[in-house]
Batch of 2 targets.
Target 1
Amino acid sequence: MTMFGLVAQAEQNVAKVGAGRYRCRYHLLPPVGWMNDPNGLCFRKGTYHVFFQYAPQSAEGAGIHCWGHYASPDLLTWKYCGAAICPDTPDDADGAYSGSAVAEGDRLSLYYTGNVKHKDKPYDYISDGRESNTILLRSENGYTFGKKQVLLRTADYPAEFTRHIRDPKVQKTDGGYTMVLGGRLKGDRGAVLVYGSADGEKFSLREVISGREKFGYMWECPDLFTLGGAQFLCVSPQGVPHEKYKFQCTYSSGYFSGDACAENFHEWDTGFDFYAPQTFFDGSRRILFGWAGMPDVPYDNQPAVSEGWQHSLTLPRELVNKGGKLYQMPVREIERLRGEEIPLSQDCGCYELQLDDVAPGTKIVLSEALEIAFGQDCVFRFLSDAGRGRTERRADVRVHSARIYMDVSLCEIYLNGGEKVFTSKLYPQKNTVSLSGSCKAVRHVMNGYTINY
Ligand code: FRU
């Protein structure tokens, strides 16, 4: 059977998995199995395309690692279009890893990393034993793809790098195309490789960016864009030491405003489950999707795994540059999912909760599981095992307002109009809300996306 056949075979389970109690209703999930990074985000001829890292054969990420594909005219009604890239050549044998899309007229070009692991002897897969091929696939209709073309192989990357180089993010620029790749330098320092190209196929190295001092050992999933007159380099660094308000998770992700140094790095999210985001421009706004998940964590998602799936993407978030800081709020389309107003005491697992005029000392408990204490800073604390081992996170912000989106087993909390965001999974038994202290609270039911599998 072909790889595409094996994916389709795993997807025969889609109705059973789709009936899971903890499935989110207004977030993109794997049809079956495992999802990680958003890939290939773009807007092509009136359609949004969202590809994603997908392991359909296992909710824990084993088996085939391919790209899944959703398409939508409005970010609310989605069609699942099947696997777009499968690891079916020697150049990507161990996974079609993360990458990006460029949409130009009819043409859609996907750039990704073909991961190859040699198995003839034991390797550390850092300094040896691994290939990371940068591969291009083109489509003229947005849905079916032509022949894979390897643009860069291990021997083409600079010698100062280990074998960890991946996640091409390509964009059209005035003079041609720019590509950023994430990497790990020898000596275990994270870095970004910046390439340029006139035709989108022949790329040459322009620059390696790694900052003055070491900032983590590996930078995954880079992104580079200009917004509000400033340029932002985004990375997902691994190995940055934990601090009280920063880098609280196993790995982090954020952007440098200005030079690539620790002082200029701003994390996207303070929650337990956010990593490896990607952005794109849809003609009027820059939109970010993150992976609502995190690798190598001391907590789990067993309730979802036992339903045959794990992880999701975040809501699409519009980015706005406010004085060099990027604010994030869900795109305005999400407001169209808002249903009737309901009291805090009603048991309802899909809701939006708007808090205003939040006085210090106010506390709110979501779904009898997650307490949020607003004071000089903001503390998120799990009160029950609905957190599956998640404990506490802190955001260094005095909160005046919050927009909370709860979607069955995922919440996204936007503080002060998107100044800080907290994303976390939770598996509650009951979905009431309680409040002490002083603030204005308005709660609405949220309706789900329409998704056709
Ligand atoms: C980030 C990441 C990427 C890689 C992909 C593989 O979560 O590790 O660097 O391309 O996941 O699924």
Target 2
Amino acid sequence: MNWETAADYAALSQRAAELLLDAIRRDPRIVLGLPTGRTPVGMYERVVAECTRAYHCFRDVTTFNLDEYVGPSREYLNFMKSHLFDHIDIDPANVHIPDGAAPDLDAECARYEREIAAAGGIGLMFLGLGGNGHIAFNEPGTPFASRTHVVPLREETRAANATAATHAITMGIATILESRAVVLLAGANKRAAIERLRSGAVSEEFPASALSWHRNVHVIVA
Ligand code: GLP
């Protein structure tokens, strides 16, 4: 793992936006994995500012979001629209988010996996970190071999995310680990989880530790 410490949240956001935009410059057809949550908001702000000011950069980019709540709310889709998609030149056909309102959720999970595979896999995955070490909605105890699946949300996660949803669809840990490169973002409020990750101990009780198995992980902490 490649560790980088940013001076503060603004610097973390700036650095993450640079990594995202550099990846698009290197490969305009890149497939990105994208997170929701408070942590990536600053990154999206800077990406939008840069893309609207300088050039149109998302024309051939494909995105896959990590997760979505089960139910009709489409909370994460709406989040992504308001923070990123509504402000950039992405083709809506290239935007992918699990459909938490699908009538058959297991079929939706299988469909999502097929779409990722059909796009050639994820080139660069951005991740946030739950206080309990979760990545996407893979809560402690999730098998590292998991693929996109439906999960019940823990009380602590529902409280942290202020959501009424009880379940979510999430990429599995194996799905995430297949990304060719990963950038993990963690602000100062995740210090305890970051220290645990830094210790190097790998356990399914601490989902983010699966990243120790990946050869190309960049962690930015503030
Ligand atoms: C949610 C999301 C995760 C995210 C985590 C941390 O549970 N499903 O993908 O990483 O929250 O969110 P925040 O950045 O708001 O702390």
